[in-house]
């Protein structure tokens, strides 16, 4: 069963916490996590890019010049792609980027990403992650004290003090436990969260 140290905000170890093997100790399969990351990125795409073909451009009904005798190439309409203002050849059209990934696979990939973070020692657990007032400098001092770089901050419930204190710090993202996902876990080097978050994650994925 994986075990992690629990810290206070002054980087003092206040205890240890045993993590569930079924969530934080599962075998990691990179290809499964890769599939779920592709699924997440595909879900973000709107697929609304659109250009007009020659048949969709207004105007161009009249033949620009007579067929023969001008010395120029034949032309039937100014809406042809070879003319300025004409249609686009093989331009993007609206499309659906959705992928189908079973819920069981998505949940499994999330457990794998959490397990990988524990293996990489990219998990920092606090006994309590609270600030008295909104103060970016105070939150940045905590990150510097723990020598953290690109950090994902997981909170158990909406907390404006933490969210607003962290939002102007580069490479820091605040996320609620309900929004925990494979892409963000892999994209950020370190995850910081409280004991309460661990309980909520284990309850949700049990």
Quick description:
This protein is 34% helix and 15% strand. The chain is α/β, with parallel strands linked by helices.
Calculate Rg over CA atoms: 27 Å
The amount of beta strand, in percent, is 5-15%
Residue runs with pLDDT of under 50 for 5 or more positions: none
Structure classification:
alpha/beta
| Main sheet properties | 6 strands, mixed
- CATH hierarchy, class of the largest domain: Alpha Beta
Separation, N- and C-terminal Cα atoms: 15 Å
Question: How many beta strands in the DSSP annotation?
Answer: 6
Q: How does the overall form come out from the CA principal axes?
A: elongated
Helix proportion range: 25-40%
CATH architecture of the largest domain: 3-Layer(aba) Sandwich
Walkthrough of the structure:
There is one protein chain. The protein is α/β, with parallel strands linked by helices and 206 residues long. The chain has 2 domains: 3-45 and 98-205, Ribosomal protein L4/L1 (Ribosomal Protein L4, Chain: A, 3-Layer(aba) Sandwich), CATH 3.40.1370.10; 48-96, no CATH class. 34% of the residues lie in helices and 15% in strands. It has helices at residues 21-24, 30-44, 103-119, 136-145, 160-166, 182-187, 195-205, and strands at residues 3-7, 13-18, 123-126, 151-155, 172-176, 190-194. A 6-stranded mixed β-sheet has the order 2-1-3-6-4-5. Helix 2 crosses helix 3 and helix 4 (136-145) packs across helix 5. The longest helix has 17 residues, at 103-119. The radius of gyration is 27 Å and the shape is elongated.
């Amino acid at each position: 069963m994986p075990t992690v140290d629990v810290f206070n905000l002054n980087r003092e170890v206040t205890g240890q916490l045993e993590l569930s093997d079924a969530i934080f100790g599962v075998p990691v399969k990179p290809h499964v996590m890769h599939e779920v990351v592709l699924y997440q990125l595909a879900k973000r795409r709107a697929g609304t890019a659109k250009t007009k073909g020659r048949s969709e451009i207004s105007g161009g009904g009249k033949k620009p010049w007579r067929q023969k005798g001008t010395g120029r190439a034949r032309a039937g309409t100014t809406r042809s792609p070879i003319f300025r203002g004409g249609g686009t050849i093989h331009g993007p059209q609206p499309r659906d980027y959705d992928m189908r990934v079973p819920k069981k696979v998505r949940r499994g990939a999330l457990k794998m990403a959490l397990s990988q973070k524990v293996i990489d020692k990219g998990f920092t657990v606090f006994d309590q992650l609270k600030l008295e007032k909104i103060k970016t400098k105070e939150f940045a001092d905590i990150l510097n004290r723990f020598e953290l770089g690109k950090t994902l901050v997981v909170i158990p419930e909406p907390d404006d003090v933490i969210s607003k204190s962290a939002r102007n710090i580069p490479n820091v993202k605040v996320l609620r436990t309900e929004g925990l996902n494979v892409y963000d876990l892999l994209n950020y080097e370190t995850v910081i969260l409280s004991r309460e978050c661990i309980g909520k994650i284990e309850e949700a994925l049990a």
